## 1
Amino acid sequence: MGTQLPTSVEVSEIDSEEGPSSSEQLDAGALFVLKSRGSWLHCGYHLTTSIVAPALLSLPYALSLMGWFPGVLCLILAALITFYSYNLLSLVLEHHAQIGRRQLRFRVMAEDILGPAWGRYFVGPIQFGVCYGAVVACILLGGQSLKFIYLLSTPKGSMQLYEFVSIFGILMLVLAQIPSFHSLRHINLVSLVLALAYSACTTAGSVHIGNSKNAPPKDYSINGAMQNRVFGAFNAISIIATTYGNGIIPEIQATVAPPVEGKMFKGLLVCYAVIIMTFFSVAISGYWAFGNQTKGVILINFMVDEKPLLPTWVLLMTNVLTLLQVAAVSVVYLQPTNDVFERKFADAKFDQFSIRNVVPRLVSRSLSVIIATAIAAMFPFFGDINAVIGAFGFIPLDFILPVIFYNVTFKPSKKGLMFWGNASIAVICSAVGVLGAISSIRQIILDASTYSLFANV
């Protein structure tokens, strides 16, 4: 007697009863970290925290490297392309879920669609590097926010940046023990509110300073010789790509309870509504207020010669809000790392909170945070390195692979607009990614002479 494949409804029922997917029911990472219990609204919270992060405070600097028209155009194009590519990625994931193979990880997705080598040697390592790099960058930013708060209250204080990074790392040691991605849903709702709040404070602060008697001269010309301008523009593209980057769409969709159809699209609408309100307001107001004198993080412009241009309480509140949200972002980007550890060291035959599973989880997650904190303290110029990560990581994962996955999976007609539109996005973004990587590496080489380990920047 022949075997009949289950329908998508039956597959959804199996998923609901047995976990993420029947084929992965013994996978501790899938069962313990990527719990498929969330709603589309929870998905929106996760997406917003993973994208709308304090990295958006560097967008005015990106505009200063490109000028008004190219900078704003890049912001708009990046928003359109990433929304489109994330939606394509979601459709591909939904398609495989309907045929009985729900893909819970980016690596697994690449293995199924492009072959085992792509997942094992390309997508897996790149995603791990991107996510862990984001954790290091967040811990560094958390330390810088703590230092900024300290200097507001103690202008002549003697504490060094690496001490604040270590303090923030201790906080992350605690938060890293949150058991699953789904457990972060309420934290990520608070994170969404925090992002709106500090973006509003930053925008209002920029507008106030730009209209005040202390306003700096507004010069929107691009500094440097032509060669530096070209490299700077591609470096700005890497910064924008990193800001819009996600890199964990499959893992976020894995947290959604089946059936998954349409839920990611609703979550994306929530996320991009927040993006429009935050990214564009901060980028445009910051560049308008400070022009080509805009610093790598716009909040630095709010201080001149260690004197605040805004009331101290405004700066304090903005930095506290940023500090709180960066903690949530760090925990989100720890999830793929946690998934790897859980899959390797945990045993799905035992309860998630049994001694057998709690001890290796505590040890592995703690070591992960300790190493990330040490890197952040040693290399406080990690912002430059993060631009390289954006070029090598976020552009392939978020701009290139989604359109390739869609074309390979659904095989749109080569005579149609969909196929050639996707192919054009892949080719153009690949070229931009290579040029962005070259520009980012060049910037590291130029800045290397000014850096030292454990520098108090």
## 2
Amino acid sequence: MLPRAQVRRLLRCVPGKERLGIYRFLPFFFVLGATMEWIMIKMRVGQETFYDVYRRKASERQYQRRLDGAPESK
């Protein structure tokens, strides 16, 4: 783990402090989020992506609710 002084020095190297303040980090997090979303959509582990598993599990839950006789809600 980096010492606190090194972290502060690294954060000061990010441009835009006077104009954007703390929001100067926003583009980095936007790119990180977009990259994670792309990985969840495109990258396959075995034969399935994250969203394949999500859809399957949601379908299984809906089917189980119908079997239990509970009213359907989202």
## 3
Amino acid sequence: MLLIVVSVCTATGAWNWLIDPETQKVSFFTSLWNHPFFTISCITLIGLFFAGIHKRVVAPSICSMSNCTSRIQHVL
């Protein structure tokens, strides 16, 4: 759930960052400084990936799939 919220925040911030006409007129770091919502949400998203949240999201679906496969094999 946290990954979804941060991803949506990052996408929304990126959209606002890209459509801002001031973004093209200033340097990269200045434009990031002018858009703190995008900057903070992007840093948070990168931090979550370094913390391994993607493994926690993908691993349960793989485990449930193997569990389902073993049940089918047992029934057959």
## 4
Amino acid sequence: MAHTSTEGSNTKPAAHGHHGVYGGSGEASPLLPSSHHDHTPHTFGDGIAHEGESGRSGFHIRHFISVLWRSSSYASMAVNVLWPFVIIAIVLNFTTDAHLWIFATSYLAMIPAANLLGFAGQEFARKMPKLAGILIETTFGSVVEIILFVVLIAKHKTSSPEENGDEGNLIPIIQAAILGSILTNLLLCLGLCFFVAGIRRHTANQKFHAVVSEVGTGLLLVAAFGLLIPSAFYSALKSETVSALHEKFTQGKLQDDILEISRGTAIVLIVAYVLYLIYSCTSAHSIFDEVIEMDEHADADREQDAAKMKLTMTETFVALVLSIAFVAWLLIILVGEIEEVVESGVPDQFLGLILLPLVEKAAEHLTAIDEAWDGVINVALYHCIGPSIQTALFNAPLVVLIGWAMGKPMDLNFEIFMIGLLVLSILVVGNFLRDQESNWLEGSLLVIVYMIIAIAFFYYPNPDVATSNGIEESLQRNITIPAHLYEQLVAAIQAGH
């Protein structure tokens, strides 16, 4: 398991240090130790390198490949057997038109590519101070998601009125992927962490610190509130575009208002994320230090991990560049085949909510589950809740602003059904975290909730317009009129008459 703290200049083995990792300064030592840049040798007295220190410099291809293959855990190492699919996906993309095969191979290829990015991020983060390292690792873990959202919004096509409204429309898939990413972390990943920790230590419940869960669930509820407002606003007023026809409150006016509300909300949510980072790194960092360091001393394979070969800083940057290049290339291939996959019968909401988050979160999930297995439950919990916070407060608002810059109508008008599931999921997770204990049964129940959501969305119908809360659907459902009169009414609404 890869940890995210720097051992500083202490010259004792990690397994023997019980007074803080910064020269015995205590459990609540500062994030940036004064000895970080001193000239003390970067190895322990018995020859074991400090956590994050490789004992080498420069670039060594044999060590580089060996460290990458071993990865951070046995599960991550097993994922590396999927690397041949990277070559297969690229070759198929250039040589055939077998869209489903291209999608399937690129989907599988994304797992080792994302795993490489996650591991390179861990290697970089472990060379940093503790909490800063975890924040950096979480950020690198979200790079895959950000690239996915950017590729999707770039591929989105705004159709003209005479075209099929669903042709080239990827906004519903982006919206589903945003919520799916949060749900996957909160239900599937957290559930598996509780389950594996409970199975290994089944004689007693796993205890975790309140500060991680309280801050996390509070921020997620605020984010859910922000994401809910545009959807609730639209749902409350969409029928009024008919009754207020002569008052110029048209469908176009409502859509413009939703877009403006979404952009304003996106800016406010990003401000909330910045405040969260400041809070994590300053006013409460001593609390987080104590919690994280307490977990590190309880790590089951701490001594074994300290003895592993590690990347140099140069090798770390090379791994980051290679992994980002592979991830971007494979996501471009993957997104290019989405419409063909949807036409083959896979619902686009299921694709966005379940399939895409599973593959782009695979590396983070493996890391968190491995930490839970090793008994580092607070860090595992942070790796489940932290990415969810970043998705809700930063990644989702960021794609709205990117769409704004690209002239694409990306908004936060989610399906009420979907946003309702998000709020309920946050409440369920918050209820399980309230007692600061977990067991394998609670983990199983979270996974079961996720499976129920996956089953429901496999049968969820595809949207016919940019949002399936569409005004045209509302008119067709609530007003029984001849087809030609209905078309004239819709044309009048769109024209603003």
